[in-house]
Amino acid sequence: MTENQPDQDILQKFDEISVKFGRARAALGKVVFGQGNVIDLTLATLAAGGHGLLVGAPGLAKTLLVTSIADMMGLSAKRVQFTPDLMPGDVLGSEVLEESAEGRREFRFIPGPIFCQLLMADEINRASPRTQSALLQAMQEQHVTVAGARHDLPEPFHVLATQNPIEQEGTYPLPEAQLDRFLLQINVEYPDLDAEKRMLESTTGADTSVVDAVMTRDDLLAAQALVRQMPVGEQIVELILKIVRSARPVDNASERVRNFVAWGPGPRASQAFSLAARALALIDGRHAPSLDDVKRLAGPVLRHRMALNFAARSEGIDTDKFIEEILAGA
Q1: What's the CA gap between 65 and 36, in Å, rounded?
Q2: 3-state secondary structure of 313
Q3: Under 8 Å between Cβ of 114 and 131
Q4: How many helices (H) and strands (E) does the chain have?
Q5: What digits encode the pLDDT tens for the residues 96-107?
Q6: Which residues contact 53 (CB under 8 A, 6 or more apart)?
Q7: 3-state secondary structure of 66
């Protein structure tokens, strides 16, 4: 074997996985119309090994996207409708006391819906903070603890949660610690005219499109390994750190950041930038991320990791606009 053979093997695997992601994008585009950027960011979230928060009005195919990804990759998937009366045990599972034929009593663990490879947490902000926090350990450590016993989750394990930004009555804002566990917050916008017309023609006829199975669980695990092996240029690292650190309201921050930002992004934001930028490059078939990848990810990485104060809101400045300002100055 030549000295550079391992690198050639990695490049060959990289090209094979990139081709499969290209097919995945095309397959999802046939059932989810006009959401190319959402599809790219969601696939990048999975390729980076992370969790995604999909925020959009009802009827924008958030649920369809998640179920289609599960079918397309052959992942075991569960959907949990988060409601105010949902308890942690309804998600994680619980122990029940059983009596055997011999009269011996013992506890048996009954796994909850979280024991799957792709969990759809629908309208996650409708559950109580206690139930929301039940996901924290699972999302970070890939296992849960019930009654003092550890239970490992399947591999891979991803959470794709949805949230309705319009109707806030009866909802509970996600704690900052949980928001930080989501690699990206992906805003789902309304489709353009052409996409909505294609959707209308495709979904109201006698035949409906079904997503093709173009990837496997092993392909996804291979992609996650490749993402972490991908080189990142010094310019990319410097831009990531400059963006993240300039969004924090610390003493040496700009006056505008100190006046308008209540709290800023932590180190997980830098990690999310690095992993997601590499994942986007993989999906596009590029062997290294670019500065444009980082700029494209500024909103999805930062918008749920920082908050503006009342002074900013009183001047009509929202988080996305402020992130654009930070990006312009980076």
Answers
A1: 11
A2: helix
A3: no
A4: 15, 11
A5: 888 777 778 888
A6: 124, 161, 162, 163, 179, 182, 184, 185, 186, 304
A7: helix
Q: How far apart are CA 265 and CA 18, in angstroms?
A: 31
In a domain, 17, yes or no: no
* φ and ψ of 120, to 5 deg: -100, 110
Q: Is the pLDDT confidence value at 1 over 50?
A: no
How far apart CA 14 and CA 228 sit, in angstroms, is 12
Q: What is the DSSP letter of 206?
A: S
Is 99:111 a contact under the CB 8 Å cutoff?
no
In this predicted model, what pLDDT tens digit does every residue of 285-299 receive, in sequence order?
999 999 999 999 999
The reply to whether 242 falls in a domain is: yes
* Interval 156-183: pLDDT, tens: 999 999 998 876 666 788 888 888 999 9
For residues 163 and 204, the answer to whether their CB atoms sit within 8 Å is: no
Instruction: Please count the structural domains in the chain.
Output: 1
- Answer yes or no: are the C-beta atoms of 66 and 245 closer than 8 Å: no
Q: What angle do CA 12, 18, 20 make, to 5 degrees?
A: 110
Q: Which domain holds residue 297?
A: 231-330
What residue type is assigned to position 244 of the chain? Answer: V
- Domain with residue 258: its CATH number is 1.10.8.80
CA distance 158 to 179: 15
3-state secondary structure of 18: helix
DSSP 330: -
Q: Give CA torsion, residues 109, 114, 118, 122, to 10 deg.
A: 150
